[in-house]
Amino acid sequence: MKNLLGDADLIAHFLNAQGEHLKGRIQGGKRINRGFGYEVGDQLEIEYSIQEGQDFIKLSHHQGLRIQSSPRGYRAMLALSLAMELISRMAQRGLAEGGLFDLLQQNLTFTWDREHWASNLITLIWRLLTLSGVQIRYQACLSCGQPSFIGSLEEPKFRKSAYRLIPTEGGIQCERCAGAGNWGAPMIKLLWLLDQGQNLAEVPEELLYSMIRDLLDYLPQHYQFTLNSLPLLARELGWQHH
Ligand SMILES: [Zn+2]
């Protein structure tokens, strides 16, 4: 009976430097005075042991190394939770192991606040896609091969078309091939900005939200998982179920 989870116990998820996902039971973690006062995304040093046949590691020591401290607001908090869940899902599935820890560390340098959460989240999703080898080929129509831009990829001018994302193919189709889609030139440009690692400060919020929504639809479908923290963000942003 000793191993049953108590009311005040917490289950904490960790990602270690090797990109492995660990779970720990923190006894009394919810108690205010003795609580496990860390937040999602904090970097900790932990000492633990693994016992055979047990799902949970046994923590013998923990200490915060880098703690998130900026005020966030509700949306930023939801976005950060979602980002951490995404990373954890990918880790559980053994995807992109080598790069996940680095990504998590980089994430600690992001400022998750009202102003930056959407660009942080989309950047993170894009890096996860790249790390796991999933591509969205936005440079040309999958069917007819017509480029989505004129000029060079360094200085592209994006064609006005209404593209459609074809999730199963990891690319886009133009409106002549697939009928009018919901991705205009600004969405294609946004993918280009992400791909080039460019600053997203000029991108309108609504465009970021649309892309986040489409990518969050795409990635879990591709890997067949669901994101428990997505419904809260979806509700907050007024996304309808589709
Ligand atoms: Zn086409």
Note the run of SSEs as H and E.
EEEEHHHEEEEEHHHH
Helix tally equals: 7
Using the CA coordinates, give the radius of gyration: 20 Å
- How much of the polypeptide forms β-strand, as a percent range? 15-25%
Overall number of domains: 2
Average pLDDT works out at: 85
CATH class of the largest domain: Mainly Alpha
Give the strand order of the largest sheet, numbering strands 1, 2, ... along the chain.
5-9-8
- CATH fold description of the largest domain: de novo design (two linked rop proteins)
Q: Work out the oligomeric state of the chains in this entry.
A: single chain
Annotation, overall tally of beta strands: 9
> What structural category do the secondary elements indicate?
alpha+beta
N- and C-termini, Cα separation: 44 Å
Q: Under the CATH scheme, which architecture of the largest domain would be assigned?
A: Up-down Bundle
- Helicity level, as a percent range? 25-40%
CATH H-level superfamily title of the largest domain = Recombination protein O, C-terminal domain
Largest sheet, strands/sense/barrel = 3 strands, mixed
Task: Describe what this molecule looks like in 3D.
With 242 residues, the chain is an alpha+beta fold. The protein has two domains: 10-66, no CATH class; 72-242, de novo design (two linked rop proteins). It is 36% helix and 19% strand. It has seven helices and nine strands, in the order ββββαααβββββαααα. The strands form four sheets. It has a three-stranded mixed β-sheet. The protein has a two-stranded antiparallel ribbon with strand order 1-2. The model has no long low-confidence stretch (mean pLDDT 85). It binds zinc ion. Residues 141, 143-144, 146, 173-174, 176-177 line the site of zinc ion (ZN).
